[in-house]
Design goal:
The chain is mostly helical and 178 residues long. The protein is 69% helix and 2% strand. It contains seven helices and two strands. It has a two-stranded antiparallel sheet. Strand 1 and strand 2 form a beta hairpin. The radius of gyration is 15 Å and the shape is globular. The two termini are 14 Å apart.
Length: 178
């Protein structure tokens, strides 16, 4: 097996994190147009624990579940149309954010709490950039308006989720066999 080829176990973990992200969509505070959900916790965990490639693949699995019609997106939504709506950029950002988090976390053999937190902060910037950009386009909002509705409401919760994830990932990252 080539060094870049993921193991069956790694693919199973990616699928599991895709399913966990779907579950996280159901734990939400419904603030329009962008609900605050637990999805980012699983995006953070997937990047920290699985690395860049498998972390991103976990989010591709999540998106594919929704695109084929399973009601896994926030608010029980499904279908490819969600990707074109006001929250679609965040979904794309989940893939890119998990990749960035995983790549940065993997730069150290044993990343500690602060390194993981910094990795997740970079990934969150990617998620918000994708989400806010699409929100601006779809809703016709200015950048300040899009930030006010698409980044500021979830930010405190996302910071708490990053701290929790860094505590969890720092403890179990070395024990996960991919």
């Amino acid at each position: 097996m080539a060094a870049d080829t993921p193991s069956l176990r790694g693919l199973a973990y990616a699928s599991m994190f895709g399913a966990l992200t779907a579950l996280g969509a159901y734990i939400a505070i419904p603030i329009p147009p962008v609900p605050v959900t637990m999805q980012t916790l699983f995006v953070f965990l997937s990047g920290c624990l699985l690395g860049g490639y498998l972390g991103a693949m976990s989010q591709v699995v999540y998106i594919l579940l929704g695109v084929i019609g399973l009601p896994v997106f926030a608010g029980g939504k499904a279908g490819a149309g969600v990707l074109l709506g006001p929250t679609g950029g965040y979904l794309v950002g989940f893939v890119l954010g998990a990749y960035v988090i995983g790549r940065l976390a993997s730069l150290r053999a044993k990343p500690g709490f602060w390194w993981l937190l910094g990795s997740m902060a970079a990934g969150l910037v990617v998620i918000y950039a994708c989400g806010v950009a699409q929100l601006m386009y779809v809703a016709g909002l200015s950048l300040p308006s899009a930030l006010a509705v698409g980044a500021l409401p979830p930010l405190p919760g996302d910071v708490m989720k990053m701290v929790l994830t860094a505590l969890i990932a720092a403890r179990i990252r070395g024990h996960l066999k991919l």
